[in-house]
Design a protein that fits this description.
- The protein is of the alpha+beta class and 415 residues long.
- It has three domains: 4-126, Beta-Lactamase (2-Layer Sandwich), CATH 3.30.450.20; 141-250, Beta-Lactamase, CATH 3.30.450; 262-410, 2-Layer Sandwich (Alpha-Beta Plaits).
- Helices cover 40% and strands 24% of the residues.
- It contains 14 helices and 15 strands.
- The strands form three sheets. The protein has a six-stranded antiparallel beta sheet. A five-stranded antiparallel beta sheet has the order 8-7-11-10-9, with helices on both faces. A four-stranded antiparallel beta sheet has the order 13-14-12-15, with helices on both faces.
- A hairpin with a 2-residue loop joins strand 13 and strand 14 (342-347).
- Helix 12 packs antiparallel against helix 13 (353-371).
């Protein structure tokens, strides 16, 4: 079975015979990663006629979990005589095989790849050598492990640096790990390294830090770093940094925080969190004599909207009110949904009663245009109270509530 394909410079029976005699797979790819030439070993690996290799994407043969590593390796070999050797899984007729891949750049944008089957050798190493087995496990672990020298320079890293950050390992070797850390997080990393070094005499206790690491595309991924100092170990003599992607953990924490402190319908603070802000601001007004106000807002005719149009329409209306509150409020003010169709706003250091009146007037104008179109007679009532003039936060809220109901009772009704 002779080598096939069309590639200038790779033809002739003698040259075919040389490449077909090699036990390693040899393929040539174009700049798109399509196979343009393959030797006999490539066909033996897949069990296909060698002609079927030509024109296929080389990525079809790579395990899905190793595609990022393969793509980064193919890109890194461009413009270099030889790329960094990597290990990845390649499809064969008998299943997935562990292969060592070494690429070389050729004229015209072509790349030559040599793949050596490591499967049986690795099995022998694992069976007879616990160190090799451990190395293989760490290399393919989901997290990234980095070895730093005493100055924080990367000496080696596992293949996960490609999967998690998109770098070829060669791109980060010899550079400070701090270069990959967001500038604002570098003090956290430096402090964790110091703690790890100080703890090394106590048995190598790990120091942790949550930082953002830069991807090759310029974006950042949140990582938890666990750092152990083995500077005194004669074999390692370095800092071992384990890096774990905490993107999902961060998202879950933010979601829990949002649920704990915010109303899920409007995104405003919930009653408990609003009361905490009100308590804090009331204490400040008593201590410093500042002018802060609490405003109560209640929808008129809300029950009729629910009855006539359903709860979905009512929910939409509540979202409209919440958005209007945030538009009228300043960045320093705090808005909350207190329950049902009741809302509250703390006007922090607003400057006096005139500011509270102005807030209620502006809110009334916006809501008059937005909620009146939903149903006839629908509107909003506001009431306010100075925190400095109230005997307690509860009293302030109560007085604002009374003022709101007074406005509601005295508003002319539309016919």
């Amino acid at each position: 079975m002779a080598a096939v394909g069309a590639f200038e410079g790779l033809h002739g029976r003698q040259l075919d015979a040389v490449f077909d005699a090699l036990p390693d797979v040899v393929v040539v790819l174009d700049r798109l990663g399509l196979v343009v030439w393959a030797n006999r070993a490539a066909a033996d690996l897949s069990g296909d006629d060698p002609a079927t290799w030509v024109g296929r994407s080389s990525f079809e043969l790579v395990h899905p979990d190793d595609l990022g590593l393969a793509a980064a390796s193919l890109e890194s070999v461009q413009g270099k005589r030889a790329g960094t050797p990597i290990e990845l899984r390649v499809r064969s007729r008998s299943g997935w095989r562990l292969m060592e891949l070494l690429g070389a750049s050729m004229d015209g944008g072509y790349s030559a790849l040599v793949l050596r089957d490591l499967t049986e050798r690795r099995r022998w190493e694992v069976a007879g050598d616990d160190v090799s087995r451990f190395r293989a496990i760490v290399h393919h672990a989901a997290g990234m492990t980095v070895l730093l020298d005493a100055d924080g320079t990367v000496e080696s890293t596992t293949a996960a640096v490609t999967r998690l950050l998109g770098y070829d390992p060669e791109d980060v070797w010899g550079s400070p790990l701090a270069n990959l850390i967001a500038p604002e997080d570098r003090p956290l990393f430096a402090a964790a390294v110091s703690r790890a070094v100080e703890a090394s005499d106590a048995g190598g206790v790990a120091a942790t830090a949550e930082v953002n690491l830069a991807r090759s595309d310029g974006t950042y991924v949140p990582m938890e770093l666990s750092i152990v100092s083995l500077l005194n170990d004669p074999v390692v003599h370095g800092l071992v940094v384990s890096c774990h992607d905490i993107t999902r953990l961060r998202a879950a924490q933010q979601a829990l925080s949002l649920l704990a402190h915010h109303d899920p319908l409007t995104g405003l603070l919930n009653r408990r969190s609003f009361d905490a802000v009100l308590q804090r601001e009331w204490l400040l007004t008593q201590r410093d004599g500042i002018d802060s106000y609490v405003v109560m807002v209640d929808l008129d005719g809300f029950k009729a909207v629910n009855d006539a149009h359903g709860h979905a329409a009512g929910d939409d209306l509540l979202r409209v009110v919440g958005a209007a509150l945030e538009r009228v409020a300043r960045d320093t003010d705090v808005c909350g949904r207190l329950g049902g169709d009741e809302f509250g706003v703390v006007l922090i250091r607003c400057g006096g009663e005139a500011a509270a009146i102005g807030f209620c007037d502006r809110l009334g104008e916006i809501l008059a245009g937005e909620v009146a179109t939903v149903s006839e007679g629908l509107g909003a009532s506001c009431g306010y109270q100075s925190l400095r003039q109230a005997s307690s936060p509860t009293e302030a809220l109560h007085q604002a509530d009374l003022a709101m109901f007074h406005e509601k009772a005295n508003r002319p009704r539309s016919r």
